[in-house]
Specification:
about 250 residues; alpha+beta; Cytochrome Bc1 Complex, Chain D, domain 2; 2 domains; 7-stranded antiparallel β-sheet; 3-stranded antiparallel β-sheet; about 30% helix; binds heme C
């Protein structure tokens, strides 16, 4: 008798488990079904309960995706925002390769309290791209959307294994280096606190930032050579200075 009861007991458990697994698999299947959304020059994969929103941009293509609670907006144009106004005290930054495109990522230090976004400088055909949201708790979901972004010429075999966030924008182009480090005092084409960037001689860049010799007393006052060397000498690598020089000469 006892074995019979045990047998019935385990059969019931088994049936329950199988049906639970079945339910879970189905339910989960519906919830996690992702949808590939085509935006023309690019596509991204978003969860089933998110949908595409499009606005009419003046100079470019602006739109977004939303689930009714959270939303991300994108700007695919020459003017895309590259996070240079983000606050380094509350935001973290990382560079990442996503489907062959170098991307700058930002997220708030406190989850759900700030900007979460991706910026791609060389998106497609000279356009820049960003996709940005604010105060979103589910960072994993957002980063999965970011990782799914593909442009027409994206190489899906090239992806960073790991994203490492830090307090500083780790810029990868002369332009973003300039905005992150120099634009508070230098304008590209006109004189501000410092001289116009485009007018600075190539050798001056190296002398002002990389050299460690030949400081005169006069140099140590204000925002002179001494300031530049102290502030940027360790921060920027020689390669990054080269990029800045390139940027100062571009166009
Ligand atoms: C806090 C303000 C400030 C920031 C930030 C700043 N600069 Fe300057 N920079 C100046 C000022 C002011 C001068 C002119 C100083 C002088 O002539 O004594 C100057 C001069 C220079 C010069 C010398 C130009 C010449 O022809 O003599 C170079 C090169 C330069 N800056 C590069 C940079 C670069 C590169 C960055 C960013 C990585 C940068 N600066 C960030 C204020 C700044």
């Amino acid at each position: 008798m006892k074995t019979d009861k045990t047998l019935i007991f385990f059969s019931i458990i088994l049936v329950l488990m199988v049906s639970l697994i079945y339910l879970f698999a189905n339910g989960f299947g519906i919830k996690s079904a992702n949808e590939k959304i085509d935006f023309g020059a690019f596509e991204m994969t978003i969860p089933h309960d998110w949908k595409k929103v499009e606005f009419k941009g003046i100079d470019g293509y602006v739109g977004g995706i939303t689930n009714g609670i959270d939303s991300l907006t994108f700007d695919y144009s020459w003017y895309s925002y590259d996070f240079n106004y983000e606050n380094g005290e509350t935001q973290l930054f990382a560079t990442d390769t996503i489907n062959g495109k170098i991307a700058l990522l930002t997220k708030p230090k406190k989850v759900g309290n700030g900007t979460i976004g991706i910026y791609i400088e060389k998106a497609y055909k000279k356009n820049r791209f960003n996709l940005i949201g604010y105060n979103i708790d589910n960072e994993n979901l957002i980063f999965n959307i970011f990782k799914s972004i593909k442009f027409k010429d994206s190489d899906t075999s090239l992806n960073s294994r790991k994203i490492e966030f830090s307090n500083k924008i780790k810029p990868y182009s002369g332009r973003s280096l300039f905005y992150a480090n120099c634009a508070s005092c230098h304008h590209r084409n006109k004189s501000m606190i410092g001289p116009a960037f485009s007018g600075i001689n190539e050798l001056e860049f190296k002398k002002w930032i990389l050299d460690s010799t030949g400081l005169t007393k006069k140099d140590t006052a204000g925002f002179g050579i001494s300031y530049h060397r102290k502030t940027f000498g360790k921060l920027l690598t020689e390669k990054e200075i080269e990029k800045l020089i390139e940027y100062s000469k571009a166009e």
